[in-house]
Amino acid sequence: MKIISQIKLPVEREMELFEKKFFQSMSSKVALLNRITHYIVNRKGKQMRPMFVFLVAKMVSDGKVNERTYRGASVIELIHTATLVHDDVVDDSNRRRGFFSINALWKNKIAVLVGDYLLSKGLLLSIDNNDFDLLKIISVAVREMSEGELLQIEKARRLDITEEVYYDIIRQKTATLIAACCSLGAASVKPDSGDVENMRRFGELIGMAFQIKDDLFDYGEEKIGKPTGIDIKEQKMTLPLIYALNHSDKKEKAWVINSVKNHNKDKKRVKEVIAFVKDKGGLEYASSQMILFQQEALKILDEYPESRYKESLELMVNYVIERKK
What we know:
The chain is mainly alpha-helical. The chain contains 15 helices and 2 strands.
Protein backbone atom coordinates (compact mmCIF):
# COMPACT_ATOMS: atom_id res chain seq x y z
CA MET A 1 0.00 0.00 0.00
CA LYS A 2 3.07 2.24 0.42
CA ILE A 3 3.10 3.43 -3.21
CA ILE A 4 -0.58 4.44 -2.98
CA SER A 5 0.12 6.50 0.16
CA GLN A 6 3.01 8.17 -1.67
CA ILE A 7 0.79 9.02 -4.66
CA LYS A 8 -1.90 10.38 -2.33
CA LEU A 9 0.44 12.60 -0.30
CA PRO A 10 0.00 15.91 -2.23
CA VAL A 11 -3.81 15.62 -2.06
CA GLU A 12 -4.20 14.03 1.38
CA ARG A 13 -6.07 17.00 2.86
CA GLU A 14 -8.44 17.16 -0.13
CA MET A 15 -9.11 13.41 0.07
CA GLU A 16 -10.07 13.65 3.75
CA LEU A 17 -12.49 16.49 3.07
CA PHE A 18 -13.77 14.66 -0.01
CA GLU A 19 -14.72 11.61 2.08
CA LYS A 20 -16.95 13.75 4.29
CA LYS A 21 -18.57 15.46 1.30
CA PHE A 22 -19.01 12.13 -0.50
CA PHE A 23 -20.79 10.60 2.49
CA GLN A 24 -23.10 13.65 2.69
CA SER A 25 -23.87 13.41 -1.04
CA MET A 26 -25.26 9.88 -0.49
CA SER A 27 -27.63 10.72 2.36
CA SER A 28 -31.35 9.98 2.11
CA LYS A 29 -34.53 10.13 4.25
CA VAL A 30 -34.90 6.35 3.90
CA ALA A 31 -33.23 4.46 6.77
CA LEU A 32 -32.63 1.31 4.68
CA LEU A 33 -30.84 3.36 2.02
CA ASN A 34 -28.65 5.05 4.62
CA ARG A 35 -27.75 1.68 6.11
CA ILE A 36 -26.67 0.39 2.69
CA THR A 37 -24.74 3.53 1.66
CA HIS A 38 -22.99 3.47 5.05
CA TYR A 39 -21.95 -0.12 4.30
CA ILE A 40 -20.64 0.97 0.87
CA VAL A 41 -18.63 3.94 2.21
CA ASN A 42 -17.00 1.83 4.92
CA ARG A 43 -15.74 -0.69 2.37
CA LYS A 44 -14.06 1.69 -0.02
CA GLY A 45 -11.07 0.59 -2.10
CA LYS A 46 -7.92 2.57 -2.94
CA GLN A 47 -10.02 5.51 -4.22
CA MET A 48 -7.91 5.96 -7.33
CA ARG A 49 -10.67 7.83 -9.16
CA PRO A 50 -11.02 10.82 -6.81
CA MET A 51 -7.24 10.85 -6.49
CA PHE A 52 -6.97 11.33 -10.26
CA VAL A 53 -9.51 14.18 -10.11
CA PHE A 54 -7.59 16.10 -7.40
CA LEU A 55 -4.08 15.44 -8.73
CA VAL A 56 -5.00 16.56 -12.26
CA ALA A 57 -6.89 19.64 -11.00
CA LYS A 58 -3.90 20.71 -8.90
CA MET A 59 -1.36 19.98 -11.63
CA VAL A 60 -3.07 22.14 -14.26
CA SER A 61 -3.88 25.05 -11.94
CA ASP A 62 -0.77 25.58 -9.78
CA GLY A 63 -2.10 23.59 -6.85
CA LYS A 64 -5.63 25.03 -6.66
CA VAL A 65 -8.92 23.16 -6.24
CA ASN A 66 -12.45 24.48 -5.69
CA GLU A 67 -15.93 23.25 -4.81
CA ARG A 68 -16.43 22.05 -8.39
CA THR A 69 -13.43 19.75 -7.97
CA TYR A 70 -15.02 18.15 -4.91
CA ARG A 71 -18.33 17.79 -6.73
CA GLY A 72 -16.59 16.28 -9.76
CA ALA A 73 -14.84 13.72 -7.52
CA SER A 74 -18.14 12.92 -5.75
CA VAL A 75 -20.08 12.55 -9.01
CA ILE A 76 -17.53 10.15 -10.49
CA GLU A 77 -17.46 8.08 -7.30
CA LEU A 78 -21.27 8.00 -7.01
CA ILE A 79 -21.65 6.86 -10.61
CA HIS A 80 -18.76 4.40 -10.41
CA THR A 81 -20.28 2.88 -7.25
CA ALA A 82 -23.66 2.63 -9.00
CA THR A 83 -22.10 0.71 -11.89
CA LEU A 84 -20.31 -1.67 -9.48
CA VAL A 85 -23.56 -2.40 -7.60
CA HIS A 86 -25.31 -3.11 -10.91
CA ASP A 87 -22.35 -5.17 -12.18
CA ASP A 88 -22.57 -7.47 -9.16
CA VAL A 89 -26.24 -8.10 -9.95
CA VAL A 90 -25.48 -8.78 -13.64
CA ASP A 91 -22.59 -11.13 -12.76
CA ASP A 92 -24.51 -12.73 -9.90
CA SER A 93 -21.48 -11.99 -7.75
CA ASN A 94 -21.60 -12.39 -3.97
CA ARG A 95 -18.31 -10.68 -3.20
CA ARG A 96 -16.78 -7.28 -3.84
CA ARG A 97 -13.23 -6.57 -2.55
CA GLY A 98 -13.49 -9.45 -0.10
CA PHE A 99 -16.78 -8.22 1.40
CA PHE A 100 -20.32 -9.35 0.66
CA SER A 101 -21.81 -7.48 -2.30
CA ILE A 102 -25.03 -5.46 -1.89
CA ASN A 103 -27.08 -8.04 -3.81
CA ALA A 104 -25.71 -10.85 -1.59
CA LEU A 105 -26.86 -9.04 1.58
CA TRP A 106 -30.02 -7.29 0.40
CA LYS A 107 -31.02 -9.20 -2.76
CA ASN A 108 -31.09 -8.11 -6.41
CA LYS A 109 -34.17 -5.90 -6.36
CA ILE A 110 -32.78 -3.65 -3.61
CA ALA A 111 -29.30 -3.64 -5.21
CA VAL A 112 -30.69 -2.44 -8.57
CA LEU A 113 -32.72 0.30 -6.84
CA VAL A 114 -29.68 1.41 -4.80
CA GLY A 115 -27.63 1.58 -8.02
CA ASP A 116 -30.35 3.72 -9.63
CA TYR A 117 -30.47 5.95 -6.54
CA LEU A 118 -26.69 6.54 -6.59
CA LEU A 119 -26.81 7.29 -10.32
CA SER A 120 -29.57 9.88 -9.86
CA LYS A 121 -27.73 11.41 -6.87
CA GLY A 122 -24.66 11.86 -9.05
CA LEU A 123 -26.61 13.48 -11.85
CA LEU A 124 -28.51 15.80 -9.48
CA LEU A 125 -25.32 16.90 -7.72
CA SER A 126 -24.17 18.33 -11.07
CA ILE A 127 -27.56 19.71 -12.15
CA ASP A 128 -28.27 21.43 -8.81
CA ASN A 129 -24.96 23.29 -9.09
CA ASN A 130 -25.19 24.05 -12.83
CA ASP A 131 -22.08 21.94 -13.52
CA PHE A 132 -23.38 21.03 -16.96
CA ASP A 133 -19.90 20.64 -18.45
CA LEU A 134 -19.01 18.11 -15.75
CA LEU A 135 -22.34 16.36 -16.23
CA LYS A 136 -21.65 15.97 -19.95
CA ILE A 137 -18.24 14.39 -19.27
CA ILE A 138 -19.71 11.84 -16.87
CA SER A 139 -22.77 11.08 -19.00
CA VAL A 140 -20.58 10.31 -22.01
CA ALA A 141 -18.54 7.96 -19.80
CA VAL A 142 -21.67 6.08 -18.63
CA ARG A 143 -22.89 5.69 -22.21
CA GLU A 144 -19.48 4.41 -23.36
CA MET A 145 -19.18 1.94 -20.46
CA SER A 146 -22.60 0.45 -21.26
CA GLU A 147 -21.76 0.18 -24.97
CA GLY A 148 -18.40 -1.44 -24.18
CA GLU A 149 -20.01 -4.08 -21.96
CA LEU A 150 -22.63 -4.88 -24.59
CA LEU A 151 -20.04 -5.01 -27.38
CA GLN A 152 -18.02 -7.48 -25.31
CA ILE A 153 -21.09 -9.68 -24.69
CA GLU A 154 -21.97 -9.61 -28.38
CA LYS A 155 -18.42 -10.55 -29.43
CA ALA A 156 -18.00 -13.23 -26.72
CA ARG A 157 -20.80 -15.20 -28.35
CA ARG A 158 -18.87 -15.50 -31.60
CA LEU A 159 -15.28 -15.11 -30.36
CA ASP A 160 -14.45 -13.09 -33.48
CA ILE A 161 -12.57 -10.23 -31.86
CA THR A 162 -9.83 -8.45 -33.77
CA GLU A 163 -7.19 -6.43 -31.96
CA GLU A 164 -8.95 -3.25 -33.10
CA VAL A 165 -12.30 -4.34 -31.64
CA TYR A 166 -10.55 -5.39 -28.42
CA TYR A 167 -9.12 -1.87 -28.05
CA ASP A 168 -12.61 -0.44 -28.67
CA ILE A 169 -14.02 -2.63 -25.91
CA ILE A 170 -11.37 -1.80 -23.28
CA ARG A 171 -11.38 1.88 -24.21
CA GLN A 172 -15.12 2.02 -23.53
CA LYS A 173 -15.31 -0.45 -20.65
CA THR A 174 -12.27 0.54 -18.58
CA ALA A 175 -10.40 3.52 -20.00
CA THR A 176 -13.38 5.83 -20.41
CA LEU A 177 -13.94 6.12 -16.64
CA ILE A 178 -10.31 7.02 -15.88
CA ALA A 179 -10.43 9.44 -18.83
CA ALA A 180 -13.54 11.04 -17.28
CA CYS A 181 -11.77 11.42 -13.88
CA CYS A 182 -8.84 13.24 -15.47
CA SER A 183 -10.92 15.50 -17.71
CA LEU A 184 -13.26 16.29 -14.77
CA GLY A 185 -10.25 17.34 -12.71
CA ALA A 186 -9.07 19.72 -15.44
CA ALA A 187 -12.58 21.01 -16.26
CA SER A 188 -13.33 21.75 -12.60
CA VAL A 189 -10.56 24.36 -12.39
CA LYS A 190 -9.98 25.33 -16.03
CA PRO A 191 -13.24 24.88 -17.94
CA ASP A 192 -13.05 25.19 -21.75
CA SER A 193 -9.25 24.94 -21.74
CA GLY A 194 -7.13 22.61 -23.88
CA ASP A 195 -6.20 20.82 -20.64
CA VAL A 196 -9.63 19.17 -20.51
CA GLU A 197 -9.08 17.17 -23.71
CA ASN A 198 -5.39 16.70 -22.99
CA MET A 199 -6.14 15.12 -19.62
CA ARG A 200 -9.00 13.05 -21.04
CA ARG A 201 -6.52 11.48 -23.46
CA PHE A 202 -4.01 11.00 -20.63
CA GLY A 203 -6.60 9.11 -18.56
CA GLU A 204 -7.66 7.02 -21.54
CA LEU A 205 -4.07 5.87 -22.16
CA ILE A 206 -3.64 4.90 -18.49
CA GLY A 207 -6.93 2.99 -18.62
CA MET A 208 -5.78 1.03 -21.69
CA ALA A 209 -2.50 0.09 -19.99
CA PHE A 210 -4.40 -0.82 -16.80
CA GLN A 211 -6.71 -3.25 -18.61
CA ILE A 212 -3.88 -4.96 -20.52
CA LYS A 213 -2.11 -5.46 -17.16
CA ASP A 214 -5.29 -7.14 -15.89
CA ASP A 215 -5.28 -9.40 -18.96
CA LEU A 216 -1.73 -10.46 -18.15
CA PHE A 217 -2.67 -11.41 -14.58
CA ASP A 218 -4.92 -14.11 -16.02
CA TYR A 219 -1.80 -15.92 -17.21
CA GLY A 220 -0.11 -15.83 -13.81
CA GLU A 221 2.52 -13.57 -15.36
CA GLU A 222 3.34 -11.99 -11.99
CA LYS A 223 4.06 -13.58 -8.61
CA ILE A 224 0.39 -13.99 -7.81
CA GLY A 225 0.42 -17.77 -7.76
CA LYS A 226 -0.70 -20.13 -10.48
CA PRO A 227 -2.27 -18.96 -13.74
CA THR A 228 -5.93 -18.31 -13.03
CA GLY A 229 -7.47 -18.67 -16.48
CA ILE A 230 -10.59 -16.87 -15.24
CA ASP A 231 -10.93 -14.85 -18.46
CA ILE A 232 -10.78 -18.06 -20.48
CA LYS A 233 -13.43 -19.65 -18.24
CA GLU A 234 -15.61 -16.58 -18.85
CA GLN A 235 -14.93 -16.68 -22.61
CA LYS A 236 -13.33 -13.23 -22.55
CA MET A 237 -11.07 -12.46 -25.48
CA THR A 238 -7.99 -10.75 -24.06
CA LEU A 239 -4.99 -9.30 -25.90
CA PRO A 240 -2.57 -12.24 -25.30
CA LEU A 241 -5.21 -14.67 -26.62
CA ILE A 242 -6.09 -12.49 -29.64
CA TYR A 243 -2.40 -12.22 -30.57
CA ALA A 244 -1.92 -15.99 -30.25
CA LEU A 245 -4.97 -16.63 -32.46
CA ASN A 246 -3.73 -14.16 -35.08
CA HIS A 247 -0.46 -16.10 -35.23
CA SER A 248 -1.95 -19.58 -35.46
CA ASP A 249 -2.72 -21.86 -38.38
CA LYS A 250 -6.28 -22.95 -39.13
CA LYS A 251 -6.08 -26.14 -37.08
CA GLU A 252 -4.62 -24.41 -34.00
CA LYS A 253 -7.21 -21.63 -34.25
CA ALA A 254 -10.08 -24.14 -34.36
CA TRP A 255 -8.67 -25.97 -31.31
CA VAL A 256 -8.32 -22.74 -29.27
CA ILE A 257 -11.80 -21.45 -30.16
CA ASN A 258 -13.34 -24.85 -29.41
CA SER A 259 -11.45 -24.96 -26.07
CA VAL A 260 -12.61 -21.48 -25.03
CA LYS A 261 -16.19 -22.06 -26.19
CA ASN A 262 -16.87 -25.63 -25.14
CA HIS A 263 -14.18 -26.73 -22.69
CA ASN A 264 -13.64 -23.62 -20.57
CA LYS A 265 -14.51 -25.47 -17.34
CA ASP A 266 -11.94 -28.21 -18.02
CA LYS A 267 -8.89 -27.23 -15.92
CA LYS A 268 -6.46 -29.28 -17.99
CA ARG A 269 -7.71 -27.75 -21.26
CA VAL A 270 -7.57 -24.22 -19.83
CA LYS A 271 -3.94 -24.86 -18.77
CA GLU A 272 -3.17 -26.04 -22.31
CA VAL A 273 -4.66 -22.84 -23.77
CA ILE A 274 -2.55 -20.76 -21.35
CA ALA A 275 0.58 -22.68 -22.39
CA PHE A 276 -0.33 -22.21 -26.07
CA VAL A 277 -0.75 -18.43 -25.64
CA LYS A 278 2.61 -18.19 -23.85
CA ASP A 279 4.25 -20.28 -26.54
CA LYS A 280 2.98 -17.98 -29.29
CA GLY A 281 4.45 -14.91 -27.58
CA GLY A 282 1.07 -13.51 -26.54
CA LEU A 283 2.32 -12.25 -23.17
CA GLU A 284 5.37 -10.47 -24.59
CA TYR A 285 3.23 -8.79 -27.22
CA ALA A 286 0.59 -7.64 -24.72
CA SER A 287 3.33 -6.31 -22.40
CA SER A 288 4.91 -4.34 -25.24
CA GLN A 289 1.53 -2.76 -26.14
CA MET A 290 0.89 -1.90 -22.49
CA ILE A 291 4.26 -0.12 -22.30
CA LEU A 292 3.45 1.85 -25.48
CA PHE A 293 0.26 3.19 -23.84
CA GLN A 294 2.20 3.98 -20.66
CA GLN A 295 4.94 5.87 -22.55
CA GLU A 296 2.34 7.88 -24.48
CA ALA A 297 0.65 8.87 -21.20
CA LEU A 298 3.98 10.00 -19.73
CA LYS A 299 4.66 12.05 -22.87
CA ILE A 300 1.48 14.07 -22.21
CA LEU A 301 2.69 14.82 -18.66
CA ASP A 302 5.98 16.12 -20.10
CA GLU A 303 4.06 19.16 -21.38
CA TYR A 304 3.41 20.31 -17.79
CA PRO A 305 5.87 22.02 -15.43
CA GLU A 306 7.41 20.01 -12.60
CA SER A 307 5.30 19.79 -9.44
CA ARG A 308 4.43 17.38 -6.64
CA TYR A 309 1.14 16.64 -8.41
CA LYS A 310 2.85 15.79 -11.68
CA GLU A 311 5.27 13.50 -9.80
CA SER A 312 2.33 11.69 -8.20
CA LEU A 313 0.64 11.23 -11.58
CA GLU A 314 3.88 9.83 -13.02
CA LEU A 315 4.04 7.43 -10.06
CA MET A 316 0.43 6.46 -10.76
CA VAL A 317 1.16 5.73 -14.44
CA ASN A 318 4.08 3.50 -13.46
CA TYR A 319 2.12 1.84 -10.66
CA VAL A 320 -0.58 0.83 -13.17
CA ILE A 321 1.81 -1.40 -15.08
CA GLU A 322 4.05 -2.47 -12.20
CA ARG A 323 1.33 -3.46 -9.69
CA LYS A 324 1.24 -7.05 -8.50
CA LYS A 325 -2.53 -7.43 -8.29
